[in-house]
C-alpha cells in the first residue's frame, strides 16, 4: 500500500453555470435545457441494461436532525437513501434500461404523489451516484460519462432540477466514490484511478456554483488490487476509508479533510465478503461478513477509544447457504441496523432484528417470486424500514409497510396507473431475450 502522497491540487476548471433565461448547455452527446428553473436531461438512448447506483457510506451525524424520526443516518440521510423533497420519506429512482429515460417518484407511504421525468441518459456510458452536495436535505446526482470523462453535479428540488453544474473532466480510468470528508454535511468525492492506484479527494460545496469543488488534493496511492469503501469507524461524522485487497488484507484510513491516518486491520481470506451497518446504534460503521463458500456470517462491531484508531468486537451469527442474500434495514426503528435475508433460489424471506451481534428476533415473512427484487426505504416516515418489491416478470409491484411490532408487514399493490413495464419489447411487439434466455429487464429501480 505504498505510494506517493502529494498536497498539490488537481487542476480545477470553470464549474459555474448560469441559471436564468433560456440557455442550453452541451455536454458531449447530452443536452441540458434551462427554462424558468424547470430543467431536464435530454440525450441519446441506449439498449444497454447497465447502470450504477449509490455507494454505501455514512454522512455526518448532524443529519439526525432531518425530517425522519429514525436516529440512524445509514437509513435516513438523503445522501444515501433517495429523498428529493426533504420530507423524510424515501422516494424512488427509475431507469429505463432500453431508452435511458430516468424518472423520479415522490412517495407518501404506498402512494406516488408526484412523478418527474429527467429525460434520457446513455446508460451504456453514463453512471450516476446520489449525494447531497449542497446540504439542503434533498438528494442530488453526480453524473459521469465513463467514455469522455465529463462530470456534472445535478442539484434536485423535488422532481425538478434546480441546477446543473459541470465540473472538471477526468479520464475513463478514474472512478468516483461518495463521502463527507470534512463533516460539513455536503457530499464530497473520492476519485480512484483503477490503473495507476492514484487517489484524490475533492471537497465539494455546491452552495457556491462559481467554485463547487473548493479543493482537489491527491492523497497516497494504493495498488489497484485494493478496493475502497466509504465508512465512519470512529463515528465523528467524517468519512473514513476501509481498504480491502484481493488477497484479503484490510486497512482503515481515518480522514480529516484531505489528511489520512492509517491503521492496519486483521486479514480475512477473499472468500469473505462484507456489507456495512451499524448494529448497536453508536454511529460507527460495523461490518457484516459473509463467507461465500461456507455460508458463515459474523459481525465486526467497531470500537474507537483513541483518535484515528479502531478495534473490532467479533460476534458469530447463524450460517446460511449461498442462496441467501442480505440487506440492511431497521424494522423496529431503534436506530440499530437489522438484517433482511432473501433466498434467491426459493424466494423465501426472513428478517433478523439485531442488538449488536445478537439476533433478538427472527421473523419468517411470506415468500416472493424469484423474479422479484427488493429495495428498501421508509416510505411513510415512521422510522421503520419498508420494502418495495419490483416484479421483473409481470410488473405487479408491491410495497410491504412494516407494522409497529417490527416483525409483520402490510402488503399494498402498486396502483395500476403507476405500473412500469418490467421487460423490454422490440418493434415487433415481442419480448427481447438476453443471452441467458431470460427477458431483458426494462424499468429498473434501486
UniProtKB/TrEMBL annotation:
It comes from the Bacteria. Keywords: Signal. InterPro entries: FG-GAP, Integrin_alpha_N. Signal peptide: none annotated. Transmembrane segments: none annotated. The keyword Signal applies. Pfam families: FG-GAP_3. This is VCBS repeat-containing protein. It comes from Mojavia pulchra JT2-VF2.
Amino acid at each position: 500500500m505504498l505510494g506517493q502522497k502529494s498536497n498539490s491540487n488537481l487542476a480545477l476548471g470553470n464549474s459555474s453555470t448560469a441559471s436564468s433565461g433560456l440557455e442550453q448547455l452541451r455536454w458531449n452527446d447530452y443536452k441540458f435545457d434551462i427554462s424558468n428553473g424547470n430543467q431536464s436531461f435530454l440525450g441519446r438512448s441506449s439498449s444497454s441494461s447497465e447502470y450504477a447506483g449509490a455507494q454505501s457510506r455514512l454522512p455526518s451525524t448532524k443529519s439526525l436532525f432531518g425530517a425522519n424520526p429514525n436516529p440512524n443516518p445509514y437509513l435516513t440521510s438523503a445522501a444515501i437513501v433517495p429523498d428529493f423533497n426533504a420530507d423524510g420519506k424515501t422516494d424512488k429512482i427509475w431507469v429505463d434500461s432500453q431508452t435511458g429515460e430516468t424518472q423520479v417518484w415522490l412517495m407518501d407511504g404506498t402512494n406516488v404523489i408526484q412523478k418527474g421525468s429527467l429525460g434520457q441518459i446513455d446508460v451504456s456510458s453514463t453512471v450516476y451516484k446520489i449525494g447531497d452536495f449542497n446540504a439542503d436535505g434533498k438528494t442530488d446526482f453526480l453524473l459521469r460519462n465513463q467514455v469522455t470523462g465529463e462530470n456534472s453535479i445535478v442539484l434536485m428540488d423535488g422532481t425538478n432540477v434546480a441546477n446543473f453544474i459541470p465540473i472538471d473532466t477526468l479520464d475513463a480510468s478514474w472512478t468516483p466514490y461518495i463521502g463527507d470528508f470534512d463533516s460539513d454535511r455536503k457530499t464530497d468525492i473520492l476519485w480512484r484511478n483503477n490503473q495507476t492506484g492514484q487517489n484524490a479527494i475533492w471537497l465539494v460545496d455546491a452552495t457556491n456554483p462559481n467554485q463547487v469543488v473548493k479543493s482537489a488534493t491527491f492523497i497516497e496511492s494504493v495498488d489497484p488490487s485494493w478496493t475502497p469503501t466509504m465508512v465512519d469507524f470512529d463515528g465523528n461524522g467524517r468519512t473514513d476509508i476501509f481498504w480491502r485487497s484481493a488477497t484479503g488484507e484490510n486497512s482503515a484510513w481515518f480522514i480529516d479533510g484531505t489528511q489520512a491516518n492509517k491503521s492496519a486491520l486483521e486479514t480475512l481470506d477473499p472468500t469473505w465478503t462484507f456489507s456495512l451497518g451499524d448494529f448497536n446504534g453508536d454511529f460507527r460503521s460495523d461490518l457484516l461478513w459473509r463467507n461465500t463458500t461456507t455460508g458463515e456470517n459474523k459481525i465486526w462491531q467497531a470500537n474507537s477509544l483513541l483518535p484515528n484508531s479502531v478495534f473490532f468486537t467479533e460476534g458469530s451469527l447463524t450460517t446460511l447457504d449461498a442462496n441467501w442474500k442480505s440487506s440492511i434495514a431497521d424494522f423496529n426503528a431503534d436506530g440499530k441496523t437489522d438484517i433482511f435475508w432473501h433466498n434467491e433460489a426459493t424466494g423465501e424471506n426472513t428478517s433478523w432484528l439485531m442488538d449488536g451481534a445478537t439476533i433478538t428476533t427472527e421473523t419468517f415473512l411470506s415468500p416472493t417470486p424469484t423474479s422479484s427484487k427488493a429495495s428498501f426505504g421508509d416510505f411513510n416516515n415512521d422510522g421503520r424500514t419498508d420494502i418495495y418489491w419490483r416484479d421483473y416478470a409481470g410488473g405487479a409491484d408491491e410495497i410491504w409497510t412494516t407494522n409497529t411490532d417490527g416483525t409483520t408487514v402490510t402488503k399494498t399493490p402498486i396502483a395500476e396507473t403507476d405500473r412500469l413495464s418490467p421487460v423490454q419489447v422490440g418493434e415487433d411487439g415481442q419480448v427481447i431475450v438476453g443471452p441467458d434466455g431470460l427477458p431483458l429487464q426494462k424499468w429498473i429501480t434501486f
